Every structure is written in C-alpha cells, then in structure tokens.
Amino acid sequence: MVNDPLLQVKGVGIQFGGLKAVSNFNLKINQGELIGLIGPNGAGKTTSFNLLTGVYAPTEGEILFDGKRINGLPPFKVTQRGISRTFQNIRLFNELSVIDNVKVAYHSLAKHSVLSSILRLPSHFSGEKEMEKKAMEFLKIFELDKYKDEDAKNLPYGKQRRLEIARALAAAPRLLLLDEPAAGMNPQETKDLMELIAFVRKEFNLSILLIEHDMNLVMGICERIYVLDHGVLLAEGTPEEIRNNPKVIEAYLGEEVHDEHA
Ligand SMILES: Nc1ncnc2c1ncn2[C@@H]1O[C@H](COP(=O)(O)OP(=O)(O)OP(=O)(O)O)[C@@H](O)[C@H]1O
Questions:
Q1: Mind listing the pLDDT tens digit for each residue in 16-53?
Q2: Ligand 1 centre and the CA of 212: distance in Å?
Q3: Fewest CB atoms less than 10 Å from the CB: which of 8, 11, 85, 148?
Q4: Ligand 1 binding pocket mutation candidate from 12, 14, 19, 228 (most atoms within 8 A of CB)
Q5: Ligand 1 geometric centre to CA of 25 (Å)
Q6: Dihedrals φ, ψ of 32, to 5°?
Q7: Can you tell me the ipTM of this complex?
C-alpha cells in the first residue's frame, strides 16, 4: 500500500547472555522522513542499527521493510532490499582509493556480470565506465572528487566520514542509517554535513534514520525523534515534544536542555 510506512519495527529485541540490549522496540519511518534516534551511552542505538541491517537477528519481534519481513536476512540482502548504513567507527577500505571505495558499493548494482569482467567482454568496459561516472557523481556531491585517486586512509577525518556516506548512497538505498555521522567533526564541518544530509535526502528521495549525540543538531533537522534508554523506548515525538518530555529530561537531556529553554 502506498501509505504504508517504509520501515516498521514491531516489538523487536535482542538478548546477549543475560543482557537485554534492546527490548520491545517499536519504530516507524515513512517515505521521505528524517528521524532521529537518541539515548545515553549503552542505550542500544547501535544495536538497533545492527538489528535493522541483519548483523544481528532479533530474538523477538519483526522488522518489515516496504511491507516485507527482513529480519533474519543477512546484511548483504538487507542492503539489496534498500537499506544502507554508515558506522560509528568509520569502516572504509583504507588501502583503496577514494573512488574505488565508492565503486565497491556500486558494484553489486552494476549491470555487467562477473563472467563478463573475467572474460573482459565489451560489456565489462562499458559497465566499468558507467560505474566510474556514477562514482564521480557521488564524489562531486560530497566535494571529494579532487581526492579521487588518494588512498582513503590519507583523507582527513571529516572527509572520511563524508566518503562513508557517499559509499552508502552508492548502493542506491531507500533508507539510509547514519550512526553518529558528525562524531569528531568541528562545528563548521558538522553544519556543512547537516546541510548535505538534507540535500541528499531530497535529491535521492531518501528516508533517513540518524543516531546523533549533538542535541541541537538532532532537534534542528529531524521531524520526529525516538529516545532509547537501557534498551527500551522511553519516548517518541516531535523535537518539541521530546524537549519537554520530563522522562527524557531526567534520563538524558538533563539540565542542559532545561536551561536552554528556561
Ligand atoms: N555483541 C554484543 N555482545 C554483548 N553485549 C553487547 C553486544 N553489542 C552490544 N552489547 C551491549 O548492549 C548494550 C547496548 O550497546 P549499544 O552499542 O547498542 O549502545 P549505544 O546506544 O549505541 O551506545 P553508544 O552511544 O555508547 O554508542 C551495551 O550494554 C553493550 O555493551
């Protein structure tokens, strides 16, 4: 159905030994929404991403993407269905060039087959050319085109973060999961990145789920916010509702937000 949410997480949870890292987690993302996921350290945010992307299979509940069940699928299948992510600790292919990092992600979608690549058929070369062109388009959007032949490891930290997002986008997702994309960036880099996220969301008609510690940033760009605490959903609402939710203030935001709006 056209109006069904793109992503529906229904009562999802996972237990590691005796620890319930996430339990009874419910979340909905509609087409085109930019949603924030916040919570104190150890609240279960990254574990939720791992559940959504098939790194972990939930021990309870189900996850529907585009109306179809995806829990239990391995990560590469989840990516093929249309969910891409970035990682809290950057995971690039350090020894590969900047452009090759993007091409790797694009590869699974390219039309030419492995066989045509091995045999070096004409379709291999046209496929390669098209891939190069597409990868350059992503690099341009992220202002990384002039570093295309540089090893990824030589990029400054902020640019590595941008490259990770470019690579995630190259897999042509409908839902992009960003795990603290602005971590370690200075205020100007963070501001630029947020503008870029807003731009790519429109340009690629994306839905985005964003884990972020910078409260002003989350409040500034997300339509709705989910708050996790000790693995359970503490609150869900608009930035205004979250800001004024006493449970959230007590558990997470504390005096900082209180003072801001006093
Ligand atoms: N593979 C695992 N095995 C055992 N425990 C785990 C595993 N992964 C996560 N946990 C635990 O689950 C809880 C939630 O961790 P998670 O990394 O999801 O929190 P987070 O909200 O992302 O925190 P942070 O903001 O610090 O990144 C923590 O107590 C963590 O130690």
A1: 988 899 999 999 999 999 999 999 888 999 999 999 99
A2: 15
A3: 11
A4: 19
A5: 15
A6: 85, -5
A7: 0.94
